[in-house]
Design brief:
- By secondary structure, this protein is an alpha/beta fold.
- It has one domain: Collagenase (Catalytic Domain) (3-Layer(aba) Sandwich).
- Strands 1, 2, 3, 4, 5, 6 and 7 form a 7-stranded mixed β-sheet that branches.
- It is globular, with a radius of gyration of 17 Å.
- The structure holds zinc ion (2 copies).
Length: 211
C-alpha cells in the first residue's frame, strides 16, 4: 500500500460527529455479488449484506445488492477451483474472475463483489486491488471461508474500493475503538464509517448514486 496510514486520531468530546455523520442526501451504494461455484455452497453473503446494510444505514447510505443474498445462475462464475496463493497467480485468478463477472452479467454502476474459495495459504479475508487492476474499476474479492466474525469484511473492502486506502491500528483498547470503526481490522463488532469516508469516498464513488 503506497498511501501513508493513519497512526491515530485524537478522540475528544467533539469526536462523535466524526463517527456519527449522516449524508445530507441519501445515496444508494450499489453492488453486484458473484460467487464461484464452490463459494456458492458456503455463501457468507447473508451476514456480509446484513452487516454492511447496518453500517451504511447509520450514515444515510442504502446498500443496494444485486441479486440479493442467494446465488442465482447469472451470478455464479464457472471457476471450479481455489484462487492460488503465489502473488502472481493470485492476481491472475482475481483478474480472470473479474473478466468472468463482466461476461456473466451487465452490472454497470455497481461494484462487483466476488466471493471465492482460496488456497489455505492466502491470508486475506477480502482484498481490493491496489496495484494492477487490469484496466477495471475497483472491485472486491472475498475469501468465502475466512470472513471476519462480525461480517464486516465486505463493508471494509468496499470502503477501500471507494477510495480510503487506510487500515486503522488494531489495538482494541485504544480510545477510538469505542466507535467500532469499520476500517479497524481486528474488531468483532464494527459498526460505523467516519465522516470522511462518507463525504470524500463513499457518496462520490462510482458505485454510489443519490436516491
Ligand atoms: Zn447483478
Ligand atoms: Zn483493509
Amino acid at each position: 500500500m503506497n498511501a501513508p496510514r493513519r497512526r491515530s486520531l485524537p478522540i475528544t468530546p467533539n469526536a462523535a460527529p466524526i463517527f456519527e455523520y449522516k449524508a445530507s442526501v441519501r445515496h444508494r451504494i450499489k453492488c453486484c455479488l458473484f460467487w464461484t461455484t464452490g463459494a456458492a455452497q458456503i455463501n457468507p453473503a447473508p451476514q456480509a449484506i446484513q452487516r454492511a446494510s447496518t453500517i451504511l444505514a447509520r450514515h444515510n447510505l442504502l446498500l443496494d445488492i444485486c441479486p440479493g443474498s442467494t446465488p442465482v445462475a447469472p451470478h455464479i462464475l464457472p471457476f471450479d477451483r481455489r484462487i492460488r496463493a503465489p502473488a502472481n497467480e493470485e492476481q491472475e485468478d482475481r483478474l480472470a474472475l473479474r473478466q468472468m463477472a463482466h461476461q456473466a452479467h451487465v452490472h454497470d454502476g455497481r461494484i462487483p463483489v466476488i466471493i471465492a474459495l482460496c488456497d489455505a495459504a492466502i491470508a486475506w479475508r477480502g482484498i481490493t486491488p491496489n496495484g494492477n487492476l487490469g484496466g477495471w474499476l475497483q472491485f472486491v474479492t472475498l475469501n468465502a471461508e475466512q470472513q471476519a466474525p462480525d461480517g464486516a469484511t465486505m463493508c471494509h473492502e468496499m470502503t477501500h474500493a471507494a477510495g480510503n486506502p487506510s487500515d486503522w491500528p488494531t489495538n482494541p483498547t485504544d480510545d477510538y475503538s469505542k466507535y467500532r470503526y469499520v476500517m479497524i481490522n481486528n474488531l468483532n463488532d464494527r459498526n460505523c464509517l467516519m465522516r470522511g469516508d462518507v463525504l470524500r469516498y463513499t457518496a462520490p464513488c462510482y458505485f454510489a448514486e443519490p436516491g
